[in-house]
Amino acid sequence: MTDKEDPKKQGKGKGKSKDVCGYPLSIFFIVVNEFCERFSYYGMRAVLVLYFRYFLQWDEDLATSIYHTFVALCYLTPILGAIVADSWLGKFKTIIYLSIVYTIGQVAMAVSAVHDITDSNRDGTPDNMTFHVVLSMVGLFLIALGTGGIKPCVAAFGGDQFSEHQDRQRRTFFSVFYLCINGGSLLSTIITPILRGQECGIYSQQKCYSLAFGVPAALMVVALVVFIVGSGMYYKAEPEGNIMLDVCKCIGFAIKNRYRHRSKQYPKREHWMDWAEEKYDKLLIAQIKMVLKVLFLYIPLPMFWTLFDQKGSRWTLQATTMNGYFGQLVIQPDQMQTFNPILILTLVPIMDSVIYPLIKKCGFNFTPLKRMTVGMFLAAMAFVCAALVQVEIDKTLPVFPSASQSQLKLLNMGSSAVTVNLTGNESLTLNAAQASDKYFTFETEQIIVSVGSPEMTQIIFLEKKSRQTLLIPSVISDEWLLTKDLTSKPEQGNNEIRFVNGMDMPVNVTTSAVDLGLIEPFYYSNYSKIKNGENKFSLSSGSQSCEYIKDFGFGSSYTFFIPSTFVFGPNCQDSITVVEDIEPNSVHMALQIPQYFFITAGEVMFSVTGLEFSYSQAPSNMKAVLQAGWLFTVAVGNFIVLIVAEIAKLPNKWAEYVLFASLLVLVCIIFSIMAYFYTYIDPSEIEVQFRKKADDDEDDKDKQQKAEIEMVRRDSAESYDDNYKQSKM
């Protein structure tokens, strides 16, 4: 049957699409649109929490809160999009208009990350932070409105393009559509972190968030253009009213009617929804009852999403404190999220073709609700793994001074060994050009330092809540210098380095990335950021020069001391003293793989099964209602992150992970009890029985009416006969 013969394609929404290999040509535009849109969304979201943390300079709690608020909005707006599409604009116009809003939001995010053009300072820190915050928040709101609004429309719009005889092609389309979602997610979470890791800027080299947001913005433009190009080929169904509104009105009337008659003596009704019978069809009420049974089961589900969506916030921030070297490959913290789509594409076919059939062969009735329960438990196990990883990370973190403490390290700048006595500590011998192995902690503001024989004593004044290094000169009677050291671990996997010049001549130190400048004799440079990997330093003084090469890890801090015996030349590599102030990240990112495996396995068993269960338990015209309810649980789950984290305010991250895992285990137990008492139904069979009963009732009513008519006819006939007889008498 051609489009001209297909009644579905007739009328105002008629499309002009030709079939290619049995598929409408129009769906290729929809598939490309979905791939680009998902790349745009997940690519932006992959780097979002790091943008909050390191560009806007928010703390981890605020960055996490805003991230989850944004995700929650993305799952609330689909309800609005579905209502607008089905009640007023139709799917096509809704996708077009909201995609324009979406694109504007992505462009706003890209512009919000451009700081060298709009800011006056040149140190890499945005000067007018209000501008960036406001623009990014506006951008995120528009993105949430756009991506959420088109979410319930695109897949359904693609399904509308097929005629009734193309069921097989329609099923293939949805499989390809799902593949595009995961393909776009996978590629974007690989590419945008790489773009973020690039250095860009006019005055200073900083992480390139503008590029990381700019490429997703460009992909969203492509998605919009591609969708518009296919406009003339689409079948565009007219809006026919929104079932969600009808359901809400019916439920509202039932509650209102029951409340109105609360004080009167009316017969008790079997179900509170039966109070809507005065106004609404009994079949609609029966269908709503089925939906409410499933929605009741949804009540515990948000807790799963509370844990699941933290892989893009807490887990990404956790990865910034870890070692990303995988052999020759360096993984960025936000790229760890790629394990989720990779594992999804791997685990879904394994579960469907191996695990579930094997469980069935073992005679175990692994129902959908049991699968969902196991999925929730696996998500809890993922957070137990995250807590264990965090404990290992915490073991490697330096102990910085508290508000009442000071810390001091010693560096012997001389060419001979010295013995140092510190207040409250045992004597310490430092060889030539050697630093102490650790920082000494003091509770007092001043200490006495004795050096050499005969002793040279100095009173040193220390700053509270600070780390300092005492530079002991080669000539003890010369001035002793105190440097200010770092009191926090370098972020984003960067390293902080400085040079101390112990020579009697100035030394210029440069690298390809930064210029540490000219360091005066017996003085030190400021800290400079250095990327991980091999870095080459050029040291020069007058006509003399040499190169020093150092391989850096992630999150370390070093002081490089140029001794007085330093000689420029090919052998200068071993002449520089390397002082490790903060050790690099030693816990490997590979330790996050188990938690990603458990959370993804939980997602496959919980999310995929949950959607299948909802579809099977929903009446044919109520599937959109349950889809909206499902998305609502995701939104609520993201809000729970904010509530729990704000109320708990735990000082240790591992304790917060354990708290979330414990809450999910508790909810898992509650859900398993609810699932035990749930009775599976076949909505189509119930609808058929209900219609048959309604038809039987109608037939009985017709028979009764016919009997009454026949009775009236007979009475009339008998009355006529009696009157006739009386008239003849």
Automatic annotation (TrEMBL):
Keyword Membrane: yes
Molecular functions (GO terms): symporter activity
Region ranges (Disordered): 692-729
GO cellular component: apical plasma membrane
Biological process, per Gene Ontology: oligopeptide transport; protein transport
InterPro entries xref list: MFS_trans_sf, POT_fam, PTR2_symporter_CS
Entry-linked SUPFAM superfamilies: MFS general substrate transporter (SSF103473)
Catalytic activities: glycyl-L-leucine(out) + H(+)(out) = glycyl-L-leucine(in) + H(+)(in); a dipeptide(out) + H(+)(out) = a dipeptide(in) + H(+)(in); N-acetyl-D-muramoyl-L-alanyl-D-isoglutamine(out) + 2 H(+)(out) = N-acetyl-D-muramoyl-L-alanyl-D-isoglutamine(in) + 2 H(+)(in); L-tyrosylglycine(out) + H(+)(out) = L-tyrosylglycine(in) + H(+)(in)
UniProt-annotated location(s): Apical cell membrane; Cell membrane; Membrane
Segments traversing the membrane: 20-42, 62-83, 95-117, 129-150, 171-191, 211-235, 290-308, 339-359, 371-391, 624-645, 657-678
Record keywords, A-Z: Cell membrane, Glycoprotein, Membrane, Peptide transport, Protein transport, Symport, Transmembrane, Transmembrane helix, Transport
Recorded topology in the membrane: Multi-pass membrane protein
Family of this protein: Belongs to the major facilitator superfamily. Proton-dependent oligopeptide transporter (POT/PTR) (TC 2.A.17) family.
Entry function: Electrogenic proton-coupled amino-acid transporter that transports oligopeptides of 2 to 4 amino acids with a preference for dipeptides. Transports neutral and monovalently charged peptides with a proton to peptide stoichiometry of 1:1 or 2:1. Primarily responsible for the absorption of dietary di- and tripeptides from the small intestinal lumen. Mediates transepithelial transport of muramyl and N-formylated bacterial dipeptides contributing to recognition of pathogenic bacteria by the mucosal immune system.
Protein name: Solute carrier family 15 member 1
Source organism (scientific name): Oreochromis mossambicus (Mozambique tilapia)
